[in-house]
Amino acid sequence: xxxxxxxxxxxxxxxxxxxxxxxxxxxxxxxxxITIINLGDNQVTLKDRHWIITDADGEQNEVxxxxxxxxxxxxxxxxxxQYTSGTVMETPVGFMQGSYGMENHKGERFLAxxxxxxxxxxxxxx
Length: 126
Prior knowledge:
By secondary structure, this protein is mostly beta strands. The protein is elongated, with a radius of gyration of 16 Å. The protein is built from no helices and eight strands. A hairpin with a 4-residue loop joins strand 7 and strand 8. Strands 3, 4, 5, 7 and 8 form a five-stranded antiparallel β-sheet that branches. A three-stranded antiparallel β-sheet has the order 1-2-6, with no helix packed on it.
């Protein structure tokens, strides 16, 4: 990965999916909506993702793969790409963080860091 500075800003919105969760079976479903904003002067393409999902017991699950939700979007300057996905955890609270592998208009690769964000059942203060 080259030392290309990332022009990407990432915003996250999370939601607990109570109707699809099964507390008795320790299955807590969460959705997250990611907004990837290109603050740069040139288009960039999201090539792959790397997630680290950590539950309240400290158990980690890594997810790597091409694109997001089946797409490898190209994001024009000063525009954003948004998608919603989800995850299942065995605890009512946890965290996700990671990075997107991006490519600029010159074919140079760089990482866009996804800062840690919390997934939690409403009212949980763990």
